[in-house]
Write a structure and sequence with these properties.
The complex is a heterotrimer. Chain B is α/β, with parallel strands linked by helices. Chain B is built from 8 helices and 9 strands. In chain B, strands 5-6-7-3-8-9 form a 6-stranded mixed sheet, sandwiched between helices. Chain B has a 3-stranded antiparallel sheet with strand order 2-1-4, covered by helices on one side. In chain B, a hairpin with a 2-residue loop joins strand 1 and strand 2. Chain B is globular, with a radius of gyration of 18 Å. By secondary structure, chain C is an alpha/beta fold. Chain C folds into 2 domains: 153 residues, 3-Layer(aba) Sandwich (D-Maltodextrin-Binding Protein, domain 2), CATH 3.40.190.10; 112 residues, Periplasmic binding protein-like II (D-Maltodextrin-Binding Protein, domain 2). Chain C is built from 11 helices and 12 strands. The chains are: A mainly alpha, B alpha/beta, C alpha/beta. Chains A and C meet through helix 2, helix 5 and helix 9 of A and helix 1, helix 2, strand 2 and helix 8 of C.
Chain lengths: 230, 242, 272
């Protein structure tokens, strides 16, 4: 592959800067997924089970937020974390933590919406049985999330894919600082602006390979789990 | 620990259930007391499953009242239900039983002994570690039975539990049900297999089109059916209310 | 809120996204895409770090945005090139003191085929007038960067205002220098670029310098420490160390030493 030869050379030669970028990208996006799952799984599950006025509106809003523009999220987090913003005292702007926060906000709706759908479907199947066993509402939520765990991995992967691929939010709140907040996507944007399109393309292929590898391992896990627990 | 309040007698007082424009059950008056198994029979759509769902407290009647041991509180205390297609939780057979024990309020330290005992009662000791969803149809039904028995019920409701099983699996399920009945569990079970009704029933309730048409001891029901409709049903005719 | 922030920090530390305790001898410098894209910082900052042990984190933005980052207190030092905007920043009290650091120059880059016929000229104003007359495609940064402001000043000198007149051949893209060069290449358009970015730009084929060497193309860079009186958390000592370095004889020598393909990109002129 001629286009990406520069990038592949970096991969093959074990370029430390490239590996640092890859490591940071993975760390940021995985942290964001963990954080978003912490919020999105219970939220989606609760939305599936609870009935209250305004539920429909909330579901529509969360579904719509799956398409939140990263730049808008980035800007909002920027204004929030800026020294002149309400959370400025934490000094988090232009740090990996800021990028984690922005990505977590971006993907929480995705995880919550997919979780709601999954849990609601499962609830239809489980409702009578759980009522007959006298399961309390809170335990219902826990059971449904647990029993939907394989399907929920897919929801988290969708979140990871979105986080790993987005550039708008991390560029704004991370600042693309060399060796500190530079991720795969911001590095690609930078190389593009420097006119080194082959290197940018090569980095893009490396990113694609990483996302593929993460998905492949999740798929393997899923197949293994399905064989084990059905 | 759950309160020891009894679930029997189970009483239907003038119960009707409407779903949309359809009257699924009408004017049911029925008392279920401890004793030999009561079998619900009747053609498809007669309301057998609906009656069981009301008896379990899964739905509330449109008119009339269902009470358990005199209480209108539908929270299950000492009753359990086996569905025609039970849901196997996505975990091992043993974990399915632990789940039921936990939500029946059974103390944690006796779980292992109870699980062993329950598996033995349904003949599934060898699959305790197997994922429940990987069990055969008959095994799943037996596991569901064990799960229901884990609640240590006074009354066990069964909705055509052998409808999808082969004869061998059916026999296994029937034996478990008879053993439970012998140990004092009241059985209320829907079936449209008259052979099964003859094998199990102490008492028969005959439902047609949402009405309780006839209730009698099993030998009376089979030997001396009262109404022409019951006679027609026992002959194997298609019965419907005119 | 505090609990939530702790949770976030715990999550990021757990996945290794953030060091448990930041190596806090570091400052944030808001600078321009031209200094980053030209590779100057990649060359200069390791030298600075070796001398002082201070890590410099560079946020590369347009000059307008970089100054705004300083205004909000999100950077310790701004290092930009638009004197009038910098003076406004000073007048508002956001900076401690402005120092000249170095200059480079702008060049008018255009298609090798030179559809407007301005190649080889020395008079940038005359060239812009011809481009306007011939309606040759022209790409503008359109992002309030130093380069953009310089470009607008040149059009003004020519007595023209294609942006206000919404000329169809005049395209404002609102992006950085590299992106503007990429766009100009794709559209066969002229574009004003700083020489540093142009020399280090990797996709030059099809583009060439059309006009250079006019005194009007002079591009002065300044450095300003953000005022700790406005933003108390500014790392004044470390930031001042950086300012002192770039205007010191040693830093000036280092800047002069940065070359690509044998060409010097930036000409130090601190204190002159």
């Amino acid at each position: 592959m001629h286009e990406g030869s520069g990038a592949w050379q970096l991969v093959v030669s074990g370029d430390p800067a490239l590996y640092a970028i890859v490591r940071l990208s993975l760390a940021v996006s995985l942290s964001a997924v963990a954080l978003a799952a912490l919020v999105g799984l219970p939220l989606g599950g609760a939305l599936a089970l609870a009935r209250f006025p305004g539920r429909g509106v909330l579901i529509v809003i969360i579904n719509a937020f799956m398409g939140l523009p990263p730049v808008v999220v980035g800007l909002a987090v920027y204004l929030l974390l800026s020294r002149s913003g309400p959370l400025g005292d934490y000094g988090l702007l232009f740090t990996p933590t800021a990028m984690v926060i922005a990505q977590a906000i971006l993907i929480t709706p995705i995880i919550a919406a997919l979780t709601r759908q999954t849990v609601e479907d499962l609830w239809l199947e489980y409702r009578d049985e759980m009522n007959a066993m006298g399961v309390t509402p809170f335990a219902r939520l826990a059971t449904l999330l647990y029993d939907a765990r394989i399907a929920l991995v897919t929801a988290m992967l969708a979140g990871f894919g979105r986080a790993a691929a987005e550039v708008g939010a991390v560029m704004i709140v991370g600042g693309n600082i060399d060796g500190f907040t530079r991720t795969m996507t911001t590095a690609i944007a930078l190389e593009t602006s420097k006119g080194d399109l082959p290197l940018a393309m090569g980095l893009g292929l490396v990113l694609l390979a990483i996302v593929l590898a993460v998905n492949a391992s999740a798929w393997g896990l899923r197949v293994f789990a399905e064989r084990r627990i059905g | 620990m759950r309160a020891p309040a009894p679930d029997l007698p189970l009483m239907f007082e003038n119960v009707s259930l409407r779903a949309g424009d359809t009257l699924l059950l009408r004017d049911i008056d029925l008392i279920i007391r401890p004793g030999a198994p009561t079998l619900l029979v009747g053609p498809n759509g007669a309301g057998k499953s609906t009656l069981l769902r009301l008896a379990m407290g899964l739905v509330a009647p449109t008119l009339g009242a269902v009470t358990w041991g005199g209480s209108p509180d539908p929270a299950p205390r000492r009753r359990a239900m086996l569905f025609q297609r039970p849901v196997m939780l996505r975990r091992s057979a043993g974990a399915n039983l632990i789940y039921a024990l936990k939500h029946a309020g059974v103390a944690r330290d006796v779980w292992p002994a109870r699980v062993r005992d329950l598996l033995e009662r349904v003949g599934l000791e060898h699959v305790a570690q197997r994922p429940a969803r990987k069990l055969l149809g008959g095994e799943q039904q037996r596991l569901a039975l064990a799960r229901a028995l884990a609640r240590d019920p006074e009354i066990l409701l069964l909705d055509e539990p052998t409808a999808n099983l082969d004869p061998a699996a059916t026999r296994a399920v029937e034996e478990i049900v008879l053993n439970a009945a012998a140990s004092g569990v009241k059985i209320l079970m829907a079936s449209h297999d008259l052979g099964q009704v003859r094998r199990l029933a102490g008492e028969v309730c005959f439902l047609v089109a949402g009405r309780l048409h006839e209730k009698a001891a099993a030998e009376v029901f089979f030997q001396h059916p009262q109404s022409p409709l019951t006679q027609a049903f026992l002959r194997g005719d298609l019965v419907m209310e005119t | 809120m505090r609990f939530f922030m702790k949770l976030i920090l715990a999550a990021t530390v757990a996945f290794g996204a953030a060091p448990a305790q930041a190596q806090d001898k570091s400052i944030i410098v808001a600078s321009t895409t031209s200094t980053q894209d030209s590779g100057l910082f990649n060359y200069l900052l390791p030298l600075f770090k070796a001398k002082t042990g201070i890590d410099v984190k560079v946020i590369a933005q347009g000059t307008g945005q970089a100054l705004d980052t300083g205004r909000r207190g999100d950077a310790d030092v701004v290092f930009v090139h638009a004197k009038s905007a910098e003076e406004k920043f000073m007048a508002e009290g956001f900076g401690v003191k402005r120092f000249d650091v170095m200059y480079n120059d702008f060049v008018l880059v255009g298609p090798v085929a030179d559809p407007a016929g301005v190649k080889g000229g020395k008079d940038i104003v005359a060239a812009l007038k011809i481009i306007d007359a011939k309606k040759a495609p022209f790409v503008s940064r359109g992002d309030k960067s130093g380069t953009h402001l310089a470009e607008l000043a040149l059009w003004k000198d020519a007595g023209l205002d294609p942006a206000a007149n919404k000329e169809s051949w005049y395209r404002e893209i609102g992006q950085g220098m590299g992106a503007a060069l990429n766009t100009a290449k794709a559209m066969g358009a002229y574009v004003l670029s700083d020489r540093g970015t142009w020399i280090s730009f990797k996709g030059k084929d099809g583009l060439a310098i059309a006009v250079e060497g006019d005194a009007k193309l002079f591009n002065q860079y300044g450095v300003i420490l953000v005022n700790p009186a406005k933003h108390p958390h500014v790392k004044a000592d470390l930031g001042q160390a950086f300012v002192n370095y770039v205007i010191s004889p040693e830093g000036q020598k280092d800047i002069a030493g940065y070359r690509i393909e044998g060409q010097q990109l930036f000409f130090p002129n601190a204190g002159k």
